[in-house]
Amino acid sequence: MKNVIVGQSGGPSSVINSSLAGVYCRAKELGADKVYGMRNGIQGFLDERLVDLGEILKSEAEVEMLKKTPAAFLGSCRFKLPDAEKKPEVFEKIFALLNKYEIKVFIYIGGNDSMDTIRKLADYGLATGSEIRFVGAPKTIDNDLAETDHTPGFGSAAKFIATMAKEAIRDEVVYSTNRTIYVMEIMGRNAGWLTAAAALARGEDNPGPDLIYLPEVPFDMNAFLEKVGALLKKKNNIMIAVSEGIHDDKGTFICEYAAADKAVDAFGHKQMGGTATYLCSVCEEKFGCKTRAIELSTLQRCAAHLASQTDVDEAFASGAKAVEAALSGRTALMATLNRAGEDPYRCEIDLADVHYISNVERLVPREWISEDGDDVTEDFVRYALPLIQGESWPVMENGLPKHLVLK
Question: Please, what are the domains in the chain?
Answer without folding.
Answer: 3-153+304-360+389-401 (3.40.50.450), 156-302 (3.40.50.460)
